C-alpha cells in the first residue's frame, strides 16, 4: 500500500545501531548501520536484495550473506545492487541482463552478493545507473561496466567507434580520465559523473535534459564541466538524480541543473538575477538556462546537502517511483545519524 506522508519505522531491526546511510533503487531500498550491517527491503524479482531468494520483502531485513563483512557503501540500480566493503572489495547481486553485475561468468542473475574479482585494486567508491555501474579505486582510476548506455551511444555516434567501457560486461577502465585522480563517482539513468581530487567534475553519457552541460546529445567519453559554471570554486560533493545533477562547492554553495519539470532543481526556471533579461529573450533560451549549473540560495552554507535530514529518524514514504532508480540520489541517499 502506498504511503503519502513520511512515517517513522519504529521497528527497524538494527539492534540499537545507528543508521549511517540509506539509498534506493528502481523498487528496492538499502540501509547501512555504523557497524557495517546492510539491511534491505522492496522488490526482489531478480534477487537484488541479496537474500538468496526472489520474494519481495516488505520490511527491512538484514543481508545475512554479508554478516562477516563490514559494508561502507551500497548503490542500487534498477534491479541490481552494488556493495562496497571496508576492505575495498566490491560485490553485486540481482539482474545481470545487461552485464551490470560485472560478473561475465554469470549468465543469469545472482540471488546472493558475489565478489567482482576483476576489480583487483582497492575500491573507495561505487555508483549504479539504471543498467550500468561504476567504481573508483584508491589510486583514482574509474571503471565502468554494464551495457545500459550502449544502445544510446551507438545511435548517437553512428559511424564512430564507441569506447570499450560502454559495452563492457565486466569492469573496464574509463578512457579519458588517465591523467586524473578521481575520488568519487555517481550515476543515474544513462549518465555517469566523476569528481576528481582537484574538485573538478567530468561527465559522460546521455545529455537529453542538459544534465551534462553540453551541446551534444550524448557524450561517449568524459568531458569536464568548466569551473566558471561554479563561480570558479572547487566541487566538494556531487549527487545525481534520474536526469539532473546537484553539486556543492567547498565553500558550501549548492548548484543544480538538468531536468526541472517536477521541481527537482529546487529553484525557479531561471535564476533571479537573470529574470529581467529572460523576459526579453525567447522561451527557448529560458529553457536552456536550466541546463547550466545555478546556485540554490536557500541551501548555500549547508555542511552537506544530505545533512539536512540528519536530525530525523529513518523515514520512508511514497509510492514506487519507476522513473527514479536512484530515488533522486541527492536526497534519497541522505545519511541519517538517528538511532533505531
TrEMBL record:
Q: Where does the record place its RCC repeats?
A: 36-87, 88-139, 140-198, 199-251, 252-328
Transmembrane stretches, start-end: none
Domain (RCC1-like): give its ranges.
6-305
Give GO terms for biological process.
negative regulation of protein secretion
What PROSITE patterns does the database record attribute to this sequence? RCC1_2, RCC1_3
Q: Name one GO cellular component term.
A: nucleoplasm
- Record keywords: Repeat
Its recorded name reads Secretion regulating guanine nucleotide exchange factor
Which source organism? Crocodylus porosus (Saltwater crocodile)
- Gene transcribed to yield this protein: SERGEF
Amino acid at each position: 500500500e502506498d504511503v503519502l506522508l513520511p512515517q517513522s519505522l519504529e521497528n527497524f531491526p538494527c539492534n540499537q545501531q545507528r543508521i549511517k546511510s540509506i539509498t534506493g533503487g528502481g523498487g528496492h531500498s538499502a540501509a547501512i548501520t555504523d557497524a557495517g550491517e546492510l539491511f534491505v527491503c522492496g522488490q526482489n524479482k531478480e534477487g537484488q536484495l541479496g537474500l538468496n531468494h526472489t520474494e519481495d520483502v516488505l520490511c527491512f531485513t538484514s543481508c545475512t550473506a554479508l554478516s562477516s563483512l563490514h559494508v561502507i557503501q551500497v548503490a542500487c540500480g534498477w534491479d541490481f545492487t552494488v556493495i562496497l566493503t571496508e576492505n575495498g572489495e566490491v560485490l553485486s547481486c540481482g539482474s545481470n541482463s545487461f552485464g551490470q553485475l560485472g560478473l561475465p561468468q554469470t549468465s543469469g542473475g545472482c540471488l546472493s552478493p558475489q565478489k567482482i574479482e576483476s576489480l583487483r585494486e582497492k575500491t573507495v567508491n561505487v555508483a549504479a545507473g539504471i543498467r550500468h555501474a561504476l567504481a573508483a579505486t584508491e589510486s583514482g582510476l574509474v571503471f565502468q561496466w554494464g551495457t545500459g548506455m550502449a544502445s544510446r551511444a551507438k545511435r548517437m555516434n553512428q559511424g564512430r567507434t564507441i569506447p570499450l567501457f560502454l559495452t563492457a560486461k565486466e569492469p573496464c577502465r574509463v578512457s579519458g580520465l588517465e591523467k586524473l585522480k578521481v575520488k568519487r563517482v555517481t550515476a543515474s539513468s544513462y549518465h555517469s559523473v566523476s569528481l576528481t581530487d582537484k574538485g573538478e567534475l567530468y561527465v559522460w553519457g546521455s545529455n537529453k535534459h542538459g544534465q551534462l552541460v553540453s551541446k551534444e546529445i550524448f557524450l561517449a567519453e568524459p568531458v569536464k564541466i568548466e569551473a566558471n559554471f561554479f563561480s570558479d570554486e572547487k566541487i566538494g560533493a556531487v549527487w545525481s538524480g534520474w536526469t539532473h545533477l546537484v553539486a556543492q562547492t567547498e565553500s558550501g554553495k549548492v548548484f543544480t541543473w538538468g531536468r526541472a519539470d517536477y521541481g527537482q532543481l529546487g529553484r525557479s526556471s531561471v535564476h533571479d538575477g537573470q529574470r529581467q533579461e529572460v523576459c526579453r529573450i525567447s522561451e527557448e533560451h529560458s529553457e536552456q538556462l536550466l541546463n547550466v549549473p545555478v546556485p540554490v540560495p536557500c541551501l548555500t552554507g549547508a555542511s552537506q546537502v544530505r545533512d539536512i535530514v540528519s536530525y530525523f529518524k529513518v523515514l520512508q514514504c511514497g509510492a514506487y517511483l519507476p522513473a527514479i532508480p536512484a530515488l533522486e540520489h541527492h536526497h534519497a541517499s541522505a545519511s541519517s545519524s538517528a538511532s533505531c
